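How a chain folds remains the central question behind the approach discussed here. No coordinates are needed to read the tokens, only the vocabulary itself. For completeness, the protein is quoted in full, as a sequence line and a line of structure tokens:
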Amino acid sequence: MPSISTSGAETIQTTMDFLPLQGTDYVEFYVANAKQAAHFYKTAFGFQSLAYAGPETGVMDRVSYVIRQEKLTFMLTTSLRMNTEIADHVYKHGDGVKVLALKVQDAADAWQQTTARGGKSYLEPVTLSDENGEIILSGIHTYGETVHLFVERQNYNGVFMPGFREWKSGYNPAPTGLLYVDHCV
């Protein structure tokens, strides 16, 4: 265990952070109508269009709109079918946060470290790739039905992640000053 000596006779023991987080990557909401929710967040809070995934991009079971303001990225996702995890979550809870995605240097190690300490696995490490590179995701359950995903994206240069394309919109209201996720409850 590393230690730090002070000017006096005492020594302070320090420990290495087993899960060095680099901040919030994105927050995913499961919603009844992703396009309408994206319009609301743009209108009410000044978010800008970023990315889209759906049947047009090869994602056949859901539609997701990604919006951003400064370091705050929201993904708004709607199921295109009944009796799916997304549809059931919206039916049970209404629109709400499902995923808090956290940036990490190594998603596989983050999953290993958290599950070794008793975290319940939600997603074993998986690599998503396209012509823009790769992203590695893993995740654990937290409280209720909310999950934490660990996102390793240093080898990805696309607009958001594989399966998404840039979403351009003529409607882009002025930002309202939101900067980043401070905390989630």
The first helix runs from residue 34 to 45. The domain at 18-166 is CATH 3.10.180.10 (2,3-Dihydroxybiphenyl 1,2-Dioxygenase; domain 1). The chain has a mean pLDDT of 93. The chain has one domain: 18-166.
